[in-house]
């Protein structure tokens, strides 16, 4: 009986290739199958769709009424099994790598429309990580969609020929070559789209092949494609189409030529699904959801971070989010090296007027980076594992003449090294560099073994001899080519290297390019990705300011992905949720044109805690804050209903202080200008609105010190030991600036609560506050020792070395029992003192396609 039912279920699955699920069920009924068996078949199919919808990963926010018709690959499929076979040959393990890819691509395909639906126009977005395998994911999605009956596949592959060609090669290798009789190609490795004769022949019912087209986002090319599709309009009604937009935030959103052309192409396809792929979805999530545009109204999928992937957070660390214990947030690996500000003018023209005739200087930092690259390449040859290519990226400007100016000095540096390989001074410097770097980042931490310097020496001569200096830009003829044997290359470039293009075996980056927006900055991080066999060796040279921007960006990324995960569990849809994107005083979220439909989110402090982690280090600024803190403690001593001195813990708690003592303190305490979330005026406005509503009229003020620290006196008979808070270690620290990254622990946020709550999770502490002190705010003062030497285990920390003791502040707001008072503030990036080089979009409308 079970075999008979299985056979009927197989019949149902075969019907699913020709009909959507509801239609396939009707066909079963027409075949005379009993209602009981039909119901059982429906139940089994529903059970399989529930498994797909409830996958642990990837997380997704979905328009609620979408049917899940796709339940995974079938035995007769051809395209997906071919990809899995190729990946196994490349060394991908079945579990977890291929299984994760299978599940995530199945989830995306399940959100597309059934190809036999009469009409559909789907819009979705898939959010991945930079250099994390997004191309492999969308290739797998295309394969599974092709196996199920999608016919036309259009891939929009960036704005440069290099990325388009790279994408075409991947798709041919993984889709076309394993099943050549299934595919017709409209583009080739060396040619973008050119109109073919008789377009109807590709889409007529007699032609069962799938049609693939990989094009740049170039107006000339897209117009040709749009006109060609119009000629085939009579045949496109039966042509389910999947449009994959790689780097979907680039050139797609708010562009005068490309955006309307993509919409035109979709308009000519009665059955079409548009799926954008990007690691920087900021612009896509700011499109007006009510407009007839490309806002992902049907689904947003958040791909999981693959095992072994080097992302922003791994390299740069990040700041704590609401609800996190700051002590558990990592500082990142010690792989970032600082470029002194004085070096920047030597490798990048200061103004546009300086571009002509610019001659770069090989600074000490650049020479060190290049020499380290040669050592890394030699070490990887000794290990003989992982990617056979070895690349260094130098990225200082978008200007091609600046790139070209690096060729002579870099070749001179290489040639001098070749001639000096027996020179004792050079060898001593290289040995010192290698020993220093391998000590700072332990190979054992990554499951590798340190390569002794003596084993590098026999390899160095050949590394130098094979090292090419390549200018990879839109005007250069000598480009990076990984198809003809192992490459050792120092690549100098701009936009062609900063979007989508994979730099194989990237080991070292030297990066000083200033940019204005999160998405541009994130996409330039070609150093993100996989480093199999050399995970301990990559290094990035950049300015301290850029490193701080990336640390902020890691926080934005994590918060954005957490928002998507939260909305997934709250029955929200892409039309009803808005991902919050925290701002930065020197960066835009995305280009101004892409933010025209954005609104400033209402910020509420209810149920949150905020804390200071940026400080000036000059005595005058710090002294004002010390005075403000002492006045607050004196007011607390005079007005507290109850005072608790906890000498053994180094703590004081002053209970039931009037709110105006807090607002007076906020009027005189100075938050660092780099902390937009710590805005005294905004916080004060929020407190006053809550007070007007009958809450936050009373506050508890706490002092948290170190019982073993030296005394700091706030008021007569009120003193505690000073805390140690080391700053992040920067090789070339900004004068008068310190970032301590973490101030307030979860235990501190519960200092005024009764019972043993300090060990609870953040949410439980907030729940206890809502029960015990629903209308009382908490302000915590931290006296921080001005020297604050770090503990030996904190390798990415340095002594604070301020001119005066520092006062840190944490504020904890109870979550309101009723509607919260919100405070709006428009925060505009102040770019007046930041030198910016915008992305070059001239290629979008060029005739040279």
What does the model show?
- This protein is of the alpha/beta class and about 850 residues long.
- The chain contains 23 helices and 28 strands.
- Strands 1-8-2-7-6-3-5-4 form an 8-stranded mixed β-sheet.
- A hairpin with a 4-residue loop joins strand 19 and strand 20.
- The radius of gyration is 30 Å and the shape is globular.
- The N and C termini lie far apart (about 60 Å).
- About 5% of the residues have low confidence.
Terminal residue distance: 62 Å
Adjacency order of strands in the biggest sheet: 1-8-2-7-6-3-5-4
**Overall pLDDT confidence:** 82
Q: Per the principal axes of the C-alpha atoms, what is the gross shape?
A: globular
Poorly predicted runs: 593-599, 823-844
Provide the structure class.
Answer: alpha/beta
Largest sheet: 8 strands, mixed
Strand content is 15-25%
Residue share in helix:
25-40%
Please outline the helices and strands.
Layout lengths: L1 H15 L4 H10 L4 H19 L5 E4 L16 H11 L4 H17 L9 E8 L6 H14 L4 E6 L3 H16 L6 E3 L14 H4 L6 E6 L3 H13 L9 E6 L11 H10 L3 E8 L20 E4 L6 E2 L1 H5 L19 E3 L2 H7 L16 H20 L6 E6 L4 H6 L1 H13 L4 H17 L12 H14 E6 L15 E6 L12 E6 L6 H6 L5 E2 L8 E4 L1 H25 L40 E3 L2 E2 L3 H21 L2 E5 L4 E8 H10 L11 H13 L5 E7 L6 E5 L2 E4 L5 E2 L9 E2 L22 H11 L3 E9 L12 E2 L7 E7 L37
Parallel strand pairs: 2-7, 2-8, 3-5, 3-6, 4-5, 6-7, 10-16, 11-13, 11-14, 12-13, 14-16, 21-26
Antiparallel strand pairs: 1-8, 9-15, 17-28, 18-25, 19-20, 20-21, 22-23, 24-27, 26-28
Helix pairs in contact: 1-2, 5-6, 9-10, 13-17, 20-21, 21-22
């Amino acid at each position: 009986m079970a075999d008979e039912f299985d056979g009927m279920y197989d019949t149902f699955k075969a019907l699913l290739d020709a009909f959507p699920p509801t239609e396939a069920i009707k066909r079963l009924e027409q075949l005379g199958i009993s209602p009981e068996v039909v119901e059982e078949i429906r139940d089994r199919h529903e059970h399989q769709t529930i498994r797909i919808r409830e996958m642990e990963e990837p997380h997704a926010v979905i328009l609620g009424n979408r049917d899940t018709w796709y339940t995974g690959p079938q035995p007769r499929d051809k395209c997906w099994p071919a990809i899995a076979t190729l990946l196994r040959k490349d060394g991908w393990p079945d579990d977890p790598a291929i299984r994760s890819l299978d599940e995530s691509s199945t989830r995306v395909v399940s959100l597309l429309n059934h190809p036999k639906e009469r009409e559909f126009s789907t819009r979705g977005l898939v959010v991945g990580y930079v250099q994390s395998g997004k191309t492999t994911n969308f290739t797998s999605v295309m394969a599974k969609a092709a196996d199920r009956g999608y016919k036309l596949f259009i891939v929009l592959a960036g704005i440069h020929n290099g990325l388009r060609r790279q994408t075409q090669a991947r798709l041919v290798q993984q889709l076309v070559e394993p099943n050549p009789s299934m595919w017709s190609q409209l583009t080739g490795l060396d040619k973008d789209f050119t109109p073919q004769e008789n377009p109807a022949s590709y889409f007529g019912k007699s032609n069962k092949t799938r049609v693939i087209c990989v094009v740049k986002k170039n107006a000339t090319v897209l117009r040709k494609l749009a006109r060609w599709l119009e000629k085939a309009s009579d045949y496109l009604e039966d042509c389910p189409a999947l449009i994959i937009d790689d780097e979907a935030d680039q050139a797609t959103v708010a562009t005068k030529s490309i955006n309307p052309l993509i919409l035109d192409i979709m308009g000519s396809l009665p059955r079409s699904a548009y799926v954008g792929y990007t690691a920087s979805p900021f612009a896509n999530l700011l499109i007006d959801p009510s407009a007839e545009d490309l806002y992902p109204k049907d689904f947003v999928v958040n791909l999981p971070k693959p095992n072994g992937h080097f992302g922003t957070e791994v390299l740069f660390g990040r700041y704590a989010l609401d609800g996190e214990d700051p002590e558990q947030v990592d500082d990142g690996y010690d792989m970032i090296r600082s470029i002194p500000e004085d070096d920047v003018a030597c490798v990048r023209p200061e103004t546009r007027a300086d571009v002509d005739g610019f001659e770069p200087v090989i600074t000490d930092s650049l020479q060190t980076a290049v020499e380290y690259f040669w050592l890394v390449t030699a070490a990887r040859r000794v290990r003989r594992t992982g990617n056979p290519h070895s690349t260094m990226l130098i990225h200082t400007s978008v200007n091609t003449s600046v790139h070209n100016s690096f060729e002579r000095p870099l070749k001179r540096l290489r040639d001098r090294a070749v001639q000096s390989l027996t020179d004792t001074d050079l060898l001593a410097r290289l040995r010192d560099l290698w020993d220093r770097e391998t000590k700072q980042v332990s190979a054992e931490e990554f499951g590798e073994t340190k390569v002794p310097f003596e084993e590098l020496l026999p390899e160095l001569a050949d590394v130098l001899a094979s090292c090419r200096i390549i200018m990879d830009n839109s005007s250069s003829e000598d480009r990076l080519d990984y198809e003809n044997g192992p490459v050792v290359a120092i690549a100098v470039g701009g936009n062609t290297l900063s979007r989508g293009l994979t730099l194989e075996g990237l080991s070292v980056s030297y990066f000083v390019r200033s940019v204005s927006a999160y998405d541009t900055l994130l996409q330039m991080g070609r150093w993100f990705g996989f480093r199999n066999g050399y995970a301990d060796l990559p290094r990035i040279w950049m300015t301290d300011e850029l490193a701080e921007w990336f640390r902020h960006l890691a926080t934005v990324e994590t918060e954005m992905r957490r928002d998507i995960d939260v909305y997934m569990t709250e029955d929200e849809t892409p039309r009803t949720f808005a991902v919050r994107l925290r701002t930065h005083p020197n960066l835009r979220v995305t280009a101004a044109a892409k933010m025209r439909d954005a609104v400033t989110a209402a910020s509420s402090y209810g149920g949150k805690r905020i804390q200071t982690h940026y400080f000036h280090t000059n005595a005058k600024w710090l002294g004002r804050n010390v005075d403000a803190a002492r006045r607050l403690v004196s007011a607390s001593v005079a007005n507290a209903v109850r005072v608790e001195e906890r000498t053994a813990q180094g703590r004081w708690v002053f209970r039931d202080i009037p709110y105006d003592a807090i607002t007076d303190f906020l009027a005189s305490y100075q938050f660092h200008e780099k902390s937009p979330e710590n805005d005294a005026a905004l916080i004060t406005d929020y407190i006053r609105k809550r007070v007007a509503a009958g809450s936050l009229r009373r506050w508890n003020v706490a002092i948290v010190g170190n019982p073993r620290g030296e005394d700091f006196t706030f008021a007569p008979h009120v003193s505690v030991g000073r805390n140690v808070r080391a700053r992040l270690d920067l090789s070339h620290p900004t004068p008068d600036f310190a970032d301590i990254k973490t101030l307030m622990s979860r235990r501190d946020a519960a200092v005024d609560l009764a019972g043993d709550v300090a060990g609870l999770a953040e949410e439980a502490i907030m729940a206890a506050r809502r029960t015990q002190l629903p209308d009382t705010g908490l302000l915590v003062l931290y006296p921080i020792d001005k020297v604050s030497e770090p503990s030996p285990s904190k390798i990415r920390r340095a002594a604070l070395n301020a001119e005066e003791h520092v006062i840190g502040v944490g504020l904890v707001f109870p979550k309101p029992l009723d509607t919260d008072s919100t405070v709006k503030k428009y925060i505009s990036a102040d770019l007046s003192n930041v030198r910016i080089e915008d992305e070059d979009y001239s290629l979008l409308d060029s005739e040279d396609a």
